Amino acid sequence: MRSVTWAILLLALGVMSCKNSTEPDEKTLTPVKDTLAFTYDSVATFTTSQSIMLCGNSQNIFIYGAYGNLSIYNIASRTVTDHSTLSDTLSWRWDGAFVSVDTSMYIFALPAPNRPAYSKVLLFNQQTYRVTATAAPFPFSLGLDPAYGVFGKKIALLYSSYDSLYVFDTSTMTGGFVAQNKLKYPGNAYSSCVYQNGLYIFVDYYMKFYRVDLQNYSWQEIVIPDSIQSNIDTYAQGGMLGNKFCLFNNPDRPGTTVAFDLTTQKWQVGAPNKKMKLGVWYSNNTSLYVSTEDYTTLWKVSLSQ
Fold first, then answer.
1. At CA 250, angle to CA 50 and CA 77, rounded to 5?
2. Poorest-confidence range of 14-28, 84-98, 215-229, 274-288?
3. 25-303 maps to which CATH number?
4. Whole-angstrom Cα distance, residue 93 to residue 79?
């Protein structure tokens, strides 16, 4: 009887030992739940038609329209100044990236329909609100909601129709393709951020998540567990808040808000977005500003303490 008891005990210990030595399936990892809370603040309304690009500095958020319209939101006073037109034809751009590096702002975009075709990087003047063409060529269209990020004096840009990551160096005003694009699933829109020499890219529709090493331009796919994918809508969008890459669903869609902690490399789930329509995004890391898809409202999103 005693030998049978010991056999059962040893068998149980063996099973426990085997279980402890087995690594969990990455696709079934349980995320940290209910640890994320967000504050949604509707900070302004504006008249810019079809806002397509957002950019900002410590004082203002610039809301750029598809037909040269510009609205400027002052962060301190919470007021908006609307500029109905920008007279120079260079300002008529359509879809792209509006990017701030130090005190300068650059536009990488396709000219609007029926406007002169400029294939140059544009420089935006924050005092006169004018744009001028630089001598730097920009050889392709980024499309709607592209992936891009700033690292040092450089800007990395990606569009899935092209097979490379494009890097523009603002110190030399030159650019070029540097690494093969490993995106196998072109999306309708991308959400992106830069954290510790990595460009993180979320591809909507196919719900793929990548990190591009900005030192050697190697690509890595980050697994989105099933428990997280089930909470992400097909057209989720977002950006960086603190050390988290946050993704939001439209308020009329199922699912919740999720985030990837860029420090711990773990996924988190938070409360669903019940207020804010999605649109065009700008992040200053502490806040996300969103020009909604109805082109009338600017939202500020923050992580609640």
1. 60
2. 14-28
3. 2.120.10.80
4. 25
Torsion sign, CA atoms 115, 98, 102, 170: negative
Give the tens place of pLDDT for each residue, 223-257. 999 989 888 888 889 999 999 999 999 888 888 89
DSSP assignment of 125-174, as one string?
-TTT--EEEEEEE--S---SS-EEEEETTEEEEE-TTSSEEEEEETTTTE
> Who wins on pLDDT, 289 or 128?
289
3 state DSSP class of 205:
coil
Domain ranges of the chain: 25-303
The band of 277, judged by pLDDT with boundaries at 50, 70 and 90, is confident
Other residues' Cβ atoms within 10 Å of the Cβ of residue 3 = 7
**Sign of the CA dihedral running 133, 190, 240, 200:** negative
CA distance 286 to 302: 7
Look up residue 217 and give its two tokens.
């331009």
Interacting residues of 234 by C-beta distance below 8 A, sequence separation 6+: 204, 205, 207
pTM: 0.84
Quote the mean pLDDT of the chain: 80
Q: How far is C-alpha 98 from the chain's CA centre?
A: 13
Q: What are phi and psi of 9, to 5 degrees?
A: -65, -45
User: For residue range 10-32, what is the model confidence (pLDDT) as tens digits?
Assistant: 334 343 333 333 333 444 345 55
Residue 289 to residue 300: CA distance in whole angstroms: 5
Q: Which amino acid is at 261?
A: D
